[in-house]
Amino acid sequence: MEQPLALLYRDDYLVAINKPSGLLVHRSPIDRHETRFALQLLRDQLGQRVYPLHRLDKPTSGVLLFGLDAGTARLMGNDWQAGTHKSYLAVVRGWLAETTTVNHPLKEELDKIADKHAQADKPAQPALTDIHCLAQVELPYPVDKYPQARYSLARCQPHTGRKHQIRRHLKHISHPIIGDAKHGKSSHNRFFQEQFGCRRLLLHADSLSFVHPVSEQMVTISAPLTDCMGRLITELGWGAHLPTWEAS
Predict the structure, then answer these.
(1) Cβ atoms of 34 and 67 closer than 8 Å
(2) Average pLDDT of the chain?
(3) How far apart are CA 106 and CA 127, in angstroms?
(4) Which residues contact 9 (CB under 8 A, 6 or more apart)?
């Protein structure tokens, strides 16, 4: 039997889930073989139509917000994210600086199938991400060319919404996310698979704050870590650096 999606928030207008890693938000020509989608699963679980208000990459877990009717979706509109505050947790290669602001424009990444009609020569768009180092660890394993392997737990707060922005910005500063098959390093990805049994992208949308379209009150929704990423952070001794709801 299909496990129900974990509901993080619900009122008469909005509902938020804790999307698992590996679940698409909706059907996509990129993954034609997939048969499970957050949109359809949540619709069936609630017994009503839902309207996705933003996206998370398939391998990214965390807060995913839907409207419960078309009117609410229109109220939120395409500009609603301009007033939102998003926070992500990531496990990255190397030791991060305490605080880093990455202001690096990004060209749109086009998929051969899904974006075949998109403008190929579109100029790079502004992209800004704040990155804070929460914890570091050095492990006694020669994963790469060094006798030890260093990793950091990062909190990432994007101020723009470019495709794969956090993943690309962390790669840009030479701290790719563990488990990122496209922007990361395969030797470190394999190490985490073999040593910790964690095969996912270690990126989690842990918090979303926004102004409610009807009450006009600020709403903050938090998503706990519930899979191997949460276990990994505890195993590395980083649990104390997380809010209590994440460490539980």
Answers:
(1) no
(2) 89
(3) 6
(4) 15, 16, 65, 219, 221
H or E stretch at 222: strand 218-222
Contact between 105 and 126 (Cβ < 8 Å): yes
Residues noted as catalytic? 57
Contacts with 121 (C-beta within 8 Å, 6 or more apart), sequence order: none
Q: What is the pTM of this model?
A: 0.91
The mean-pLDDT minimum among 18-32, 106-120, 206-220 falls in 106-120
Which tens digit of pLDDT belongs to each residue from 104-131? 999 987 565 444 445 557 789 999 999 9
Q: Of 86, 40, 94, 48, give the one whose Cα is nearest residue 68.
A: 48
**Residue 207 CA from chain centroid, whole number:** 10
Q: What's the rounded mean pLDDT across residues 129-145?
A: 95
Which tokens is 39 given? 């949109």
User: Is residue 3's pLDDT more than 70?
Assistant: yes
H helices present in 117-183, as ranges: 165-172
Q: How many helices (H) and strands (E) does the chain have?
A: 6, 10
152-191 pLDDT, tens digit each: 999 999 999 899 999 999 999 999 999 999 999 999 999 9
Q: Report CA 123 to chain centroid distance, whole Å.
A: 25
How big is the chain, counted in residues? Answer: 248
Contact (CB, 8 A) for 160 and 127: yes
Angle at 104 between CA 98 and CA 109, to 5 degrees: 120
Contacts of 216 (CB under 8 A, 6+ apart): none
